[in-house]
Amino acid sequence: MIPLTKEIDRENSQPFDFHCWSNESRANALVDKIWLQYFEHKFPQTGRGNRPKTPLKTQFKVVLLNLYNAWLRDPEMSIGVAKSKTAYGLNERYNPRHISSAIIKLINHLEETGFIDKRTGSEVSQTRTRIRANTKLTGLFKEYRLSFFDLTQEYGIEETIILSKRETEKDTKTKKSLRINYVDTDFEPIVRMRDSVREYNALLWRTFIDIPTLDKPFVPQPYWCKKDNKYKERKVWLTQNNKFVKRIFYRADWNLGGRFHGGWWQSIKEDWRKQIYINNESTIEQDYSGLHINLLYGLEQIQPPSGDHYEVDPILSNVTPEQQRKAVKGLALMAINAESTFKAFSAFRESQDYDSPFKNLTHKKLQMLLDAFKEKHPMIAGKLCSDVGVKLMNIDGRITAKVINHFTKKNVPILTIHDSYITPQNYSGELNKVMNESVAEELNGMIIKIDQEGIGTDQIQAFKNMDRSNSLDYKYDNVPSYKLSSGYKERLKRHTEWLNTLNIN
């Protein structure tokens, strides 16, 4: 085996993608070269006995392209793969290529023939085995010169409507998310929802979404590692194949959840989101103010009170009013999603950074904060700590679907972070209008305050049109503009060249 310079880092990895594929002729040529020389004699396609639904060569192609995709992102990046046969029991809806446990044998042979490095996982620590392309394999990768555009997921084949549930694994306290099989007739809107999300993904697929200040296509994302008791850094990749969006319903119930998940923009912090460019244009983000609090009022057919929902009398010492407000807001959101007060308090402390002044707040102090919030909002106090959050997520999922569908039909890319939305600068006014209309449809005409930082170019122009005598006062100073890095320019060039090959009008 030919090792790379570094031992495999478990943190620098990505999950195995059952849908990683390419129809590019160079991809097929690469697969043929390795298969014919190293695998065909070991895994003949003839013979008797049970055969996998998908030929082993096809499954090998998926494994190889997963390794290629990781290497393109980072030569040291690995793939997390399950070595248990039960992990490959996904039904056809979520595994349309019928990738089977046979890939375990293929991976083992890749190691035996010196194409990959491997770091074995552990059932005790609940870690999956990591595999990474070796220099022997990366030499071939360089020879066949595939790009992210050649390895883009097949959006027409991957399921976009997910029915899930969480259950505790045997002999552990770990909860894992399971995908539940269903038929399209189980819930009337399924087909319509799937068509909408697929149209949306097709639009994102041909849209250039990036951050112009980044020379390398990733955002460094710090996080607190409990195991090592220190901050570490993971990379959120801004690549073409990290834009796929799906709707996930929770607890095997079509009336719970239904939010839009996926897309690298959901995994980065607000300061980075401000810098996002869509098709080389600056953007603006708008979000509903206190959405779930306001939805609770809306369900009761009560107009929410004006003013700050989270501002209460001083309770905590040694913190600023703004810090206390932040704590109340975080606790209120936990209470909306929790089944009990105890779970709300535990979840709140768990969500705090290790150096947060609220990390070790006692139940007594947290109860005082929660009571103050309830006193401010007596009409919805009974809904707190009652597990109502997943029902509210169903409503905000429907609101987001309305916003997305409006812009997708106009061929205008929009990015979502649950209850916030990012559009190109010249669509900020239209986004505001559509957000208000979508809420009003769900809540019988109710309007929820929308927070917007900055002002869009279309809104500036509207102000000018209304007040032409003072038009010179309306400047574009609030419209962000960033210096384009050389890496960004190159990515934009490649995306434009690739898009031109598709002949999309």
Topology:
Blueprint lengths: L12 E3 L9 H15 L16 H18 L4 E4 L20 H11 L3 E4 L9 E5 L1 H10 L16 E8 L6 E5 L10 H16 L3 E2 L7 E8 L4 E8 L7 E5 L7 E6 L7 H4 L3 E2 L2 E8 L2 H9 L21 H17 L3 H11 L11 H14 L12 H21 L5 E2 L3 E5 L3 H15 L7 E3 L4 H10 L19 H17 L3
Parallel strand pairs: 1-2, 5-10
Antiparallel strand pairs: 2-4, 3-4, 5-6, 7-12, 8-9, 10-11, 12-13, 13-15, 13-16, 14-15
Helix pairs in contact: 1-2, 2-3, 5-11, 7-11, 8-9, 8-10, 11-12
Could you explain how this protein is built, in words?
- By secondary structure, the chain is α+β, with helices and mostly antiparallel strands.
- Among the domains are: 1-151, no CATH class; 306-376, no CATH class.
- It is built from 14 helices and 16 strands.
- The strands form four sheets. Strands 7, 12, 13, 14, 15 and 16 form a six-stranded antiparallel β-sheet that branches. Strands 1-2-4-3 form a four-stranded mixed β-sheet.
- Strand 12 and strand 13 form a beta hairpin.
- The longest helix is centred in the last third of the chain and has 21 residues, at 389-409.
- It is globular and about 75 Å long.
- It starts with 12 loop residues before the first strand and ends with a helix.
- The mean pLDDT is 89.
